[in-house]
Amino acid sequence: MLPLNECCYRLNHLDTPWDIETYIENGGYQIWKQVLAGELSPQEIIDEIKTSNIRGRGGAGFPTGLKWSFMNRAAPGPKYILCNSDEGEPGTFKDRDILRYNPHQLVEGMMIAGYTIGATAGYNYIRGEFWEPYKRFHNAIEQAREAGLLGENILGSGYDFELHAHLGAGAYICGEETALIESLEGKKGQPRFKPPFPASYGAWGKPTTVNNTETLASIPVILAKGGEWFRDLGVENAGGTKCYAVSGHVEKPGNFEVRMGTPFKDLLEAAGGIWKGRELKAVIPGGASTAVLPGEKALAMNMDYDSIAKSGSFLGAGSVIIMDDHTDMVKACERLSWFYHEESCGQCTPCREGTGWMYRVIHRIRQGKGRPEDIELLRNVGGKIMGKVICGLGDAAATPVSSFLEHFEHEFRHYIDHGCSIFDRQ
Amino acid sequence: MSAASQGMIQGDVQSRIDKWVARYPSDQPQSAVMAALRIVQEANGGQLTTALMDEVADYLGMTPIAVYEVATFYSMYEHQPVGRHKLCVCTNISCMLRGSDELLDYMKQKLDVEVGQVTADGKFSIKTVECLGACGGAPMMMLGKDYYENLDEKRVDEILDGLE
Ligand SMILES: Cc1cc2nc3c(=O)[nH]c(=O)nc-3n(C[C@H](O)[C@H](O)[C@H](O)COP(=O)(O)O)c2cc1C
Ligand code: SF4
Ligand code: FES
Question: What is the pTM of this model?
Answer without folding.
Answer: 0.97
